[in-house]
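Try this one yourself first.
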């Protein structure tokens, strides 16, 4: 009889995401209008979800940081239905296709190009001598609403070079995790209203003198290394973008 010797460890981040998704879906299904919702005690909720209390506690901390719940000793864990029902939050790293779907539109995107560029990027730093360039246009009911330019650090993207065509059908989060053995832990964004210029105006089907919202994103992995420089141009009118400003 053969003995099992090699076991793949479970990724704690993936487990937390599964717990968070399951809990969040249960919360959304239980919300009616703007009525406040109180969650069961941790030990009861953990048992109902079939997870450990430690795993649940980590997820509750994330949900509190994102503004969905508040925890007070005297009142318990309370859900804010207005925040739960809000969509298109720019303070969360939600995929654009998900934002579009949450607004009730049919999401879609077109990949314009994927290629390695043999030059330095000022955000990725001088140690990166090349980067992987990915350009996409995103659609809501066939109407272009966003144009995105992703620049992956070359030393990271090279690990997934043989799979980079997967970017035509998947997000940069999936590409980093599944193909490059790395993850985007957080993103720092500069938010700037700009005039789009002729090329971007053509892609978004607007006039060149129509302002768009530009997000200059710097993505860091869990080692605090810059692994992504993204520029996102958002057209106004169809999607209403929001930012939750929370006092700590």
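Now uncover the answer:
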């Amino acid at each position: 009889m053969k003995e099992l010797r090699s076991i793949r460890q479970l990724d704690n981040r993936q487990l937390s995401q599964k717990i968070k998704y399951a809990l969040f879906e249960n919360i959304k299904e239980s919300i009616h209008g703007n009525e406040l919702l109180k969650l069961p005690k941790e030990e009861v909720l953990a048992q109902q979800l079939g997870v450990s209390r430690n795993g649940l506690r980590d997820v509750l901390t994330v949900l509190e940081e994102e503004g969905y719940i508040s925890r007070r000793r005297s009142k318990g864990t309370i859900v804010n239905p207005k925040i739960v029902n809000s969509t298109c939050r720019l303070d969360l790293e939600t995929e654009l296709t998900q934002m579009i779907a949450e607004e009730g539109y049919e999401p879609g995107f077109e990949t314009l190009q994927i290629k390695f560029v043999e030059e330095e990027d000022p955000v990725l730093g001088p140690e990166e001598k090349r980067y992987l360039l990915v350009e996409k246009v995103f659609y809501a009911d066939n109407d272009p609403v966003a144009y995105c330019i992703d620049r992956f650090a070359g030393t990271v993207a090279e690990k997934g070079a043989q799979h980079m065509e997967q970017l035509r059908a998947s997000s940069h989060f999936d590409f980093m995790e599944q193909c490059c053995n790395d993850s985007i832990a957080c993103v720092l964004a500069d938010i700037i209203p700009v005039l789009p210029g002729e090329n971007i105006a053509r892609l978004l089907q607007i006039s060149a003198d129509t302002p768009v919202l530009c997000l200059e994103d710097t993505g860091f992995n869990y080692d605090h290394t810059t692994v992504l420089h993204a520029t996102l141009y958002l057209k106004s009118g169809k999607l209403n973008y929001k930012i939750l400003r929370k006092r700590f």
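Discussion: Residues 12-30 form the longest helix (19 residues). DSSP finds eight helices and nine strands in the chain.
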